[in-house]
Amino acid sequence: MQSFQFYLPTRVYFGKGMIEKVGEEAKKLGKRALVVTGGKSARRMGALQKIEDFLKKMGVKTILFEGVEANPSLETIKRGMNLAKKEKCQIIVGLGGGSPMDAAKGIAVSSTNPGGFTQYLGRNKLKEVPLPVIAIPTTAGTGSEVTPYAVFTTTDGKHQKKIMADDFIFPKVALVDPELTLSLPASVTADTGIDALSHAIEGLISNNSQPLSDRLALEAIKLLSTHLPEVARNPQDTEVRGQILYASLLAGMVIAQTGTIIVHGMSYRLTTDLNLPHGRACAILLPWVCEFNLKSSSAKLTSLAKSLGEDVENLSQEEAGQRVVNRLRELLLQVGLSQDLNLRKIEESQIRDFAHEVMQDKRKLANNPRKITLENIIEIYRKAFGVVK
Length: 389
Ligand SMILES: [Fe+2]
Fold this sequence. Notes:
A hairpin with a 5-residue loop joins strand 7 (149-154) and strand 8. The chain has helices at 21-29, 41-44, 47-57, 74-86, 98-112, 186-205, 211-233, 238-258, 262-272, 278-294, 301-307, 317-334, 348-358, 362-367, 374-384; strands spanning 11-14, 32-37, 61-65, 91-96, 122-123, 133-137, 149-154, 160-165, 173-176. The strands form 2 sheets. A 6-stranded parallel sheet has the order 1-9-6-4-2-3, sandwiched between helices. Strands 5-8-7 form a 3-stranded mixed sheet. The longest helix is centred in the middle third of the chain and has 23 residues, at 211-233. The chain is α/β, with parallel strands linked by helices. Fe (ii) ion is lined by residues 195, 199, 264, 278.
C-alpha cells in the first residue's frame, strides 16, 4: 500500500448550534478576541451577536473588525493587524466565507511576525507562531477552516492573488454549523459549492493524492453531486445544508494534504481580471480540465464516475471520461451556473497572458496528473469561454 502523511491539527466541531463553543474555546486561548467578518450578512443573520454573547459569557472581550472585502487586500490585513495590536488581542476569530477566514489568518500572522507582510507570502515563510485562529464558516465551499492556506490580493499595479501556505496557519479550532449557511443566496451557494467540488476532484486526481484523502474526496464528491441540486430547490433545509457543509469540510481536509491542480491555477486571473467569483471561475474551467486530464489518467476515473452517480463499468476509458465531463456539465446546469458560463467576453491576448502566468506555478503543474503545456492551457481557456479557433 502507498505510504502517506496526513496532518490536520485543527479541532473540528461540526453540527447545529456549534457556534456556542466559541466562548469556551476562546477562553482557553486568551481574554481578548478580534472578530473578523465581511459585509453585513453575519450581523443580519444574528451570528455576530450570538458570538459576542457567547464570548462575553465566558469573560472574553470582543473587538470587531467588520467589512472584509471579497479577495482581501494587503491593506485590509494591515488595518486588522493595527487594531489587533492596539487592542492587545490574543485570539482572532474569522467569521464568514473564505475571505474573512483568510483575512483572520493574515491578521494572526502579521500580529506576531515582524516587518512587512509581503515577505511572508508564499510557502513556509513564517518566522513566528501566529495568534490562534478560530474559524467559523458561513459558506460551504472554501474549506479554509481546515487548511494551511490563505489567499490575498495585492493591489500595487495590477491585481494579483498571492497564496500563503504554512502549517502554522491551520486554524486552532473550526466551528462548522449548518445553521449559519441557511440564508445564503442561491448564487453564492452554487458558486461556493462548486468550489468545494473542485477541491475534492482536484485533490482526488492530483499527483499528490493519497489513500486517506481519496476516501474523503470521493465522499465529498458524492455528497455534493447529490445535494447541491437539492439545496437549490430547498435552501432552508438544514439537513441538506449540513450535508453540503460537511462535504465542503471534507474537501478542505483533502486539499490541506494534496493541494489543488490547474483548475485553481487557471482560475485566479479570472477573478482578478474578469471579476468572477472564485467558485464561478473554477466552475467554468472544471469540466474542461477534467476532460484534458481524464484522457491519460484512468486509475481514478471509475471511482470518480461512481461518486458522481455514473455507471461506467463496461465502458471504454474514453467513453467513461466523456460521461464524467457530461455529468459535471449537467450538475452545473442543475445548480443554475451554466447560463452565463461561456458568455463572458475574453480577449485572445488575455488568454495568452493568463496562460503564461499559469506556467509559472510549478507546484500546480507538477500536481496535475497529465503533463500540460502552454498550448494545452490556452486551449482549455478557449474551450471554457467558447472561443472558436
Ligand atoms: Fe477554492
